[in-house]
Structures
1.
Amino acid sequence: MVESGKRFEVLGAGIRECPRCGGTHQFHFPNGLPKEPRIYVPCPRVTRFWRLSTFYIDSTPNVLDEEQILAQIQDMHGARELEQKLARWREVRRPGLWLIFEYREMVEEVMQAYVQGLHYPALTGACCLAERVMNRLLFGLKEHYKRSVHYKRIYDKSRVQNWAQLRKVLRDWRVIDSEQAGVIKKLHSLRTDAVHYVKDYDYEEAAAEAIRLVLQLVDSLFFAFDRKDIFWVFRIPGKIWVREDKQDVPFVKEFVLPLCHKAGATMLYLNDEGYKEDGAIVGPMTEAEFIETRKSYLADPSKHDDGKTPREFSIEFQGETRTFVVP
Ligand SMILES: [Zn+2]
């Protein structure tokens, strides 16, 4: 139901008589009004937490049977030594859910080189990837560590090639733990062997080791199921939420929250109606209360719905009718 605009003041001002709490709220659109046909103005007095909404899922290892996997490998890499290719495919592929970053395509290419049996490109690619991920972390996070002794050495640089330095800084900033630092150290040693001449070097074995290590590193950072230190994984059925006590951690701020949306305990995403949170409780809520409310809501939404929202209001703005939604 679309109502008249009497509850709305002009652009950037706000709403009176919020249908959820009855109060007055200011909303700010620093970049101008969004272009979407319906602009959400959720009641700010409802407690919401960050929920992961953008991610990469690979379900092929679960979905495909062996025949289909073989067909896919043959299509991509040719029919020769298919059994070995399948064995390598099984070594590197696992189903799961990762935070999306540009590294994803590179991981894929390195894995494909390995499946194909291209050991040198797989080895060097795996090592380069590790260096790239470390640089990405370092420069993505540096502004959070201005008081660190490392900051003045790197703040005006665009890259760091010194692996020992990368490892030390990320360890000191607690972005990686001692186990991850150990993985990086081993990758560094493989990298050194790969780019220099080592007589009779076993590239096949080194490639297998490098790819195992780089996948371990990438997973330990970006694989949601391995990041239970920052996520509630399926503690609330079917979904991944950021733990409240971790939302101020620099890694979470820079690499996780941009992939999340804030959502309420009584929220639903409906294909035709968009986001709604009828029955939302006004006021602060602890994380434990939030989780209980969410479970109770999913068990029976009708027990919570009070019909106060969603409500839509239209106003004329610059000759156009714009619709606002209190979800
Ligand atoms: Zn309100």
Note: The longest strand covers residues 311-317.
2.
Amino acid sequence: MDFNDTPAEAEFRARARAFLEANLTPKGKERESLQKRLTEREYLAAAKAYQAKKAQAGFAGITWAKEQGGQGLPPIFSVIFNQEEARFDAPSAPFAIGLGMCIPTLIAFASDEQKARFVAPALRGEEIWCQLFSEPSAGSDVAALKTRAVRDGDDWVINGQKVWTSGAHYSDWGILLVRTNPDVPKHKGLTMVFLDMRSPGVEVRPIHQMSGGSNFNEVYFTDVRVPVSQTLGGEGNGWTVALVTLMNERLAVGGSPGPDYREIMEFAREASGPQGGALLADGHFRQRLADWYVRAEGYKLGKFRTMTALSKGETPGPESSIGKIITANQLADITNAGIEAQDHFGIVTEPDVAAADGLFQQSYMWAPGLRIAGGTDEILKNIIAERVLGLPADVRVDKDVAFKDLPAGR
Ligand SMILES: Cc1cc2nc3c(=O)[nH]c(=O)nc-3n(C[C@H](O)[C@H](O)[C@H](O)COP(=O)(O)OP(=O)(O)OC[C@H]3O[C@@H](n4cnc5c(N)ncnc54)[C@H](O)[C@@H]3O)c2cc1C
């Protein structure tokens, strides 16, 4: 394992830092993040402007081929930029799904003409994309989805419902996984298409979250017509295409936006402990703090291992699933402890009055979502069990049964 940047990596890091310092505010400098201070419309405008600057300065599509408008650099450069960007309040969330998952899927499967039309505008932040996979009874088992597409001339006619679609309400385009053949086993009858989110028959209904936000939606399709030319990877190959999207998702849903052991340690210097005196003097709390520190260090070293592999041009394996389990659970645990320590004031969420500007309360409400998005804890543990530890595979009784003959398919 080599912890040091190569000269080329160090030069890139310095350039990235200079760009970020010139365009963004460091995290923590303002009491509330940009996303909290601005209305959604203002935040989207700020996000689009920042993405355009990134593209102009050569920090967008870092690993994408030059002919796609990218920089053609190895993945380690993308990791370096993300590390540096994480220290700033960057309005990049609206592009995470499009640039992290949808456009890489288009690059892999769309025609040259389609790539020429869609890749550059997404990279410059002019168009936002969403990912329409999950349904009310198809989340972890997304291949059980029921949204139907039936061919009619040169169009697919689509009927059904998706759920938890992040950003659907402000997206211009979406990639959509549909069932085109219910007579074959569930993974084989799927097809991936992309569509204009303003097509007639698309209805987006926001879901209100406990945080007060509405980041994701239900999306209903009623006789929505999508040109067959907007099929990605060919009819019946939707599962293969979806795996490419999901592989990118595991890489995109990585970090943990919220307080870590350092922040709760700072908070514990001021907060009162259960026996009076500072919380930081409490033995039980100190033990938990040590545990969070050890996990965070383990995670950091695991990431260094991934970075070393990337730096050598190798592909990181399924062990990156371990990182998401650690960060998501650690965030839930730390925010819970931060709220508990505030006793009955823990329910106050307004940054103006809550301790530590309400940091623990806000992140506490986001933590459960992080444990679900991009693969739940249990699904990731299955991946680790099967692909890292080589344990026997989960029992899959529906593998060779036609979808229409499954209880879920009726
Ligand atoms: C913040 C957030 C953003 C999201 N954004 C999007 C988006 O943009 N587009 C999109 O398509 N989807 C999105 N999703 C949906 C997400 O992909 C699903 O919620 C996720 O795949 C889990 O599916 P589910 O909610 O249906 O739960 P289920 O799959 O029904 O799981 C319920 C419980 O059963 C467990 N379980 C399921 N199968 C197994 C198994 N084989 N072994 C052991 N335990 C199992 C799960 O771990 C979980 O605890 C988002 C979700 C979140 C939280």
Note: The CA atoms of residues 135 and 162 lie 4 Å apart.
